[in-house]
Amino acid sequence: MAAAKPKRAKPPKRAVAVKRAPTTDRRLAAAQLAQVREFCATLPGSDEKLSHGAPTWFVKQGVYAHFCDDHHGDGRIALWCAAPEGAQAMLVESEPAHYFIPAYVGHLGWVGVRLDRDAAWSQVTAILEAAHATRSAPRPKSRKSR
């Protein structure tokens, strides 16, 4: 008598990406992005490129700002900006309605700036200038162990 063939395991079902309606105001996002683009174009050596599907601004030492519109469904229109040491804690503690610790880069001291709230544009530009300056400064050379 022939042995029964073992049953094959069924392959796991694939997750299907579901498109959902954005939770942010598209007109506001476009207007804020236009303002950020206009301002960043005035900063020396600034270059805009897409990174991870979003507008991102670079300077010689790397990324200094990243525009986020409803990042992973968080409902925010925001900028993630490099920040000088200590600035993140000061801003988040003083105005948590306008500033937050962004995902992925928050542990590096970056600050999130809500553009969908009524933050003064002068504050936004000051943060962008500080981010640009932070990433434009030459990095200290590390000492090699002997």
Which descriptors apply to this entry?
Aspartate Aminotransferase, domain 1; alpha+beta; 3 helices; single chain; 146 residues; six-stranded antiparallel sheet
Write down the secondary-structure element order: HEEEEHEEH
Beta-strand content: 15-25%
Shape: elongated
**Gap from first CA to last CA:** 74 Å
- Describe the sheet with the most strands: 6 strands, antiparallel
The overall pLDDT average reads 88
Using the CA coordinates, give the radius of gyration.
Answer: 22 Å
Structure description:
The protein is α+β, with helices and mostly antiparallel strands. Helix content is 27%, strand content 21%. It has three helices and six strands. It has helices at residues 26-40, 87-94, 121-136; strands spanning 47-51, 54-59, 62-69, 77-81, 99-100, 111-114. Strands 1-2-3-4-6-5 form a six-stranded antiparallel sheet. Strand 1 and strand 2 (54-59) form a beta hairpin. The chain is elongated.
Protein topology:
Blueprint: H1 26-40, E1 47-51, E2 54-59, E3 62-69, E4 77-81, H2 87-94, E5 99-100, E6 111-114, H3 121-136
Antiparallel strand pairs: 1-2, 2-3, 3-4, 4-6, 5-6
Short description:
This protein is an alpha+beta fold and 146 residues long.
